C-alpha cells in the first residue's frame, strides 16, 4: 500500500509542478553498478574526472582516492559498460608512496590523439602520457614538476586547476597551485617541455596565496582563457593576467567554494553562479550574479538562488533538454537530499530555479562526495555520477522521456589544441540562442561532461551552429541533424560527421511509445532490432524497482511487440501510477514512460 501512496503522491506532484514548468520533469533511476562494470573501489573518494579517454564516443570515469589506503580507479566506457584499466597505469605505485590525491584532469597535452593524465597529490604533481591506453609517467623529462615549498612543510597539497591554451600557441598549458605555498605555477607548454611562466604572466604571490582553487574560463568571451579563483577574477590580455575583480562587480563576493560561468538566460554573455561549502553560523549563500554589459549584479533572490546548503560538489547541464542549463548540487550532509535546481523561463521572460530533486528521483542519501554529469549511455540525456565511500558508485541514469530534442558535438582541433579546449559554440533555433564553452577543469576536484551538449526542447530543426575555435577560426554548420552526436573537426569543409558507431540511421534500434497510453488494463510495446542480439525489456516503478521482465533472450532482427497487462512477476495487478519501460539490446539502451490508470 505504501507504494500506491508514493505513486499517487508522485503523480500529484508531477501534476502540480507541470503547471509551473513547460514540460515534464526529467526522471532518474539508480543503475545497478555491477551490471555496468563499476567494480568495488574501497577507498575514501574525493574527486572525479570525466572524459572520452580512448575517443570511442563514450565518456569514461576516473574516480579519485582522497587519502590512503587504497588507490584511484580508471574506468573505460565500452558502449555503456565500464572496464577497470587502472593496472595499465602507474597509479598504484604513485599513490602507494603519496598518501593523498587531490586533483586529476584528462588533457591531450602533446596533441597526438590520446588523452593524457595529470594528477596532483599532497606531495607533488604527475604527468602520465597516454599511448593507446597505456600510461607512462613523463613528469621529470617534461619539466612538469612543482618545487618543494620552503621550510618544514611536509604536505605540499598540490592542486591542478585546469588546462587551457592561455598564450594561444596551439597547445595546452596548465595552472597548478599549492595550499602551503604563496607561489603559483603556470606551466607553459613549449611543445617538448614545460616552463613555469607565472611571473612573466603576472601571476606571482600576493593575493594568489588564497587562490588555490583556480580554474580557466573565458568569462569575457574575447577568445583567450581567463582565470577564476575563489574570490578573484584574473583577466587574460595577450598572455598577461590582471586582477579584474573590482571592475567586474565582484568586490564584495565572499565564501566562494564552487563556481561556474554560464549563460543562464541565453542572452549571449556569461553569468556567474557560486556555491558555498559550509553554512556554519549562518554564513555563506549560494548566489547567481547576472552579467549586464560586463558588470555582474547579484540577482539571487529574484530567481530563487539565495539559499544555504552544505555542498561537496556541483555540476551543470541541460538535464531536461529544454534549452536552459540546470544546476545539480551535491549536499554534503549525510541523510540529506541533494539539490536539483531546474531552470525555467516563463512566458513574460522571467526565470526561476526550483529545487525538484525529490520529484526527479534524486533521492539517495547515503555517504557520498562530489558529482559530475555525463551521458554515459549516449541517449542525449545527461546522467549524474557520484562517488560514494559507502556504495562505491552512484550512477543516476536520466530516463529522458519528456519528448524534448537535443544535439551534441564532439570537437577536435587541427590547428588549435587537439581537445579544442577554449572553443565557444553557439546554437540558434528559432528565436533562441544558446552558448557553450569547452573547458578542461570545471572546478575543484572536478572535470565533467566533455562534449558540447544542447537541449532544444520541442524544436524539430536547428537553424545553425557557430563554432569559434581557440585560435580564432569561425566555422558555421547548417543542416545539422538533431537527437544525435556529431564529430566536428576544425576547418573541415563538410559540415558534420554523424557519430553513430557505424550504424546507418535507417538500420538503428528503436523503442516505440507504448499504445495506448495512458492504459487500462493492457498496453502494447513495440521495438525494432537491426540485427540479432541479446534483449532485455523490463518495467520499473517510480522508485526505480524492477516490477516486470517482458523479454529476456536472444532475438532475431526485425520488429517485435509485447503486450503487458500491468501485472508484476508474481501475477499481482499493479496500482495506478507512472511506470518506465527500458529496452537493453546489445549496447543500445532506451527508456520511455507510461501511465497506468486503474
Any overview of this molecule?
With 598 residues, the protein is mainly beta. The strands form eleven sheets. A five-stranded mixed beta sheet has the order 5-4-3-2-32, with no helix packed on it. A four-stranded antiparallel beta sheet has the order 1-28-27-26, with no helix packed on it.
What percent of the residues sit in helical stretches (DSSP H or I)? under 10%
Poorly predicted regions = 1-23, 497-506
Derived structural class = mainly beta
Strand order of the largest sheet: 5-4-3-2-32
Tell me what portion of residues adopts beta-strand conformation.
35-45%
Intertermini distance: 15 Å
Short précis:
This protein is mainly beta and 598 residues long. The strands form eleven sheets. The protein has a five-stranded mixed beta sheet, with no helix packed on it. The longest helix is centred in the first third of the chain and has 17 residues, at 2-18.
Question: What's the structural blueprint in terms of helices and strands?
Answer:
Elements: H1 2-18, E1 28-30, E2 44-51, E3 60-67, E4 73-78, E5 81-84, H2 91-97, E6 101-107, E7 116-121, E8 125-131, E9 134-137, H3 139-142, E10 158-164, E11 173-178, E12 185-189, E13 194-196, E14 215-217, E15 226-228, E16 233-237, E17 240-243, H4 245-248, E18 258-262, E19 271-275, E20 287-292, E21 295-298, H5 300-303, E22 311-317, E23 326-331, E24 339-345, E25 351-355, E26 372-374, E27 383-388, E28 392-398, E29 405-412, E30 424-429, E31 432-437, E32 446-447, E33 452-457, E34 464-468, E35 474-477, E36 485-489, E37 497-498, E38 510-511, E39 523-529, E40 533-540, E41 546-555, E42 558-564, E43 577-585, E44 588-596
Parallel strand pairs: 2-32, 29-36
Antiparallel strand pairs: 1-28, 2-3, 3-4, 4-5, 6-7, 7-8, 8-9, 10-11, 11-12, 12-13, 14-15, 15-16, 16-17, 18-19, 19-20, 20-21, 22-23, 23-24, 24-25, 26-27, 27-28, 29-33, 30-31, 30-34, 34-35, 36-37, 38-39, 39-42, 40-41, 40-43, 43-44
